[in-house]
Amino acid sequence: MNMNLFSKIRLNILSIILAVCFIQACTSTPPESPDNICKIFKEKNSWYKAAMQAEKRWKIPPYVLMSFVFQESSYQAKAKPDRAKLLGVIPWFRPSSAKGYSQALTNTWNDYMDETGNTRAKRSNFKDSSDFIGWYASKGYYQGFERTDARSLYLAYHEGYKGFEKKTYRKKQWLIAVSDRVQARSSMYQQQYWGCAEDLKKKRFWFF
């Protein structure tokens, strides 16, 4: 075999191997300390950047944003609702089209892409999901929602703003309980964030 051709083939194989390793290394895994927003942002520099961009664009506080992501997906990029069980045993259809960090429904995600122009957005991408949550929350600000009211924002996120207005959540005690947990986590994250925001801002890590 021609040595130049052999070298080219070896170089191509090496490039493929490196590309695969890079993709695997970049595959985002849940943070090691999901109950501490400061540790999350120090571990996940790109998540910090995404949260800051969402706050700048949509005015959503990072602690509210992160409480949503935790509740919706437990920081799992590929999260999907569990499949229903046919006859209690056979895996059946999923209850909805929700998936990704934000657990956004397909139709709502399409509305987001159309309205923002972010047509290449993916629900498995943390930055895109953060922007989506900020986009959706911002619609509530125009209706008088407080930016720190994670409980109401989450109820509207789950039921839709029209559903929230009709108070459909009142018939779902489990959802009210979940929204209370979202508010509790947001408040916890807020206290933590106040203690590390300046340090994070100084380090910035914008090159990741």
Please describe what this structure looks like.
- With 208 residues, this protein is an all-alpha fold.
- Helix content is 62%, strand content 2%.
- It has 2 domains: 1-30; 31-203, Lysozyme (Orthogonal Bundle), CATH 1.10.530.
- Strand 1 and strand 2 (90-91) form a beta hairpin.
- The longest helix is centred in the C-terminal third of the chain and has 31 residues, at 173-203.
Pick out its properties:
208 residues, mainly alpha, Lysozyme, 2 domains, two-stranded antiparallel sheet, 9 helices, 62% helix, globular
How would the blueprint of this fold be written?
Elements: H1 3-26, H2 37-43, H3 45-58, H4 62-73, E1 85-86, E2 90-91, H5 106-116, H6 126-141, H7 150-159, H8 161-165, H9 173-203
Antiparallel strand pairs: 1-2
Helix pairs in contact: 2-3, 2-9, 3-6, 4-6, 4-9, 7-9
Low-confidence stretches: 17-27, 81-96
Instruction: Provide the CATH top-level class of the largest domain.
Output: Mainly Alpha
H/I helix tally:
9
Number of domains: 2
Task: Report the biggest beta sheet as strand number plus sense, adding barrel if it closes.
Answer: 2 strands, antiparallel
Count of extended strands: 2
Q: What is the CA-atom radius of gyration, in angstroms? A: 20 Å
